[in-house]
Specification:
alpha+beta, 5-stranded antiparallel sheet, binds nickel (II) ion, 4 helices, 19% helix
Amino acid sequence: MILYIYILEKYDKRINMYSFTYSTSRDKIITYGVDFMFKKLNILDEKDKRLRQISKDATFPLSEKEQKLIEDAVTHLTYSQIEEYEKKYDLRPGMGLAFPQLGINKRIIVIVDEYDEGKFDNYIVINPVIVSNSKEIIAADAGEGCLSVNREVEGHVPRYARVTVEGFDTEGNKIKIRAREELSIAFQHEIDHLNGILFYDRIDKNKPFFSENEIRLI
Ligand code: NI
């Protein structure tokens, strides 16, 4: 008997991970790496009351559970923005998550921003506070979405065009982030979650849409 082993090694720089596909026969293919590491998150639905609570400040050092959840959130959000993995794991694309969405009412947010094709910046902010904002107001023209809201909600959500956010990194060091445009919207959306606010609370029922003359639509 002859045993053949085929090994295919692939490095995916988008998620900074190697995967190994090996097989001992043509019909038995096993992938290690990506599949092994990935754990789909359990995200609360909008009906869950925990999403309506005011979250408490996180304290340092973060627990192992909190750190693990942050890592899983980064992975989940990154995968959800890469078509190949989005399809493979049946994910809804999203760029941000706040801890209340994961059932933990602590002030922790995670944003994964695709700033260039296949290139991601991760923002993990503990106890974030918006310390200043632009006068200019913008809105995402296509509306906003949320991984806790499993339906389309139409309407413009007015947001500051630019915000400065202060908070702490996972080690407890003070950090300051200046965000603009889409990233600014993401920060405001996630910080709202910490205060029990969902994006559609900010849509004016009497006037859900703005014109270009009223606010800048992006
Ligand atoms: Ni959300």
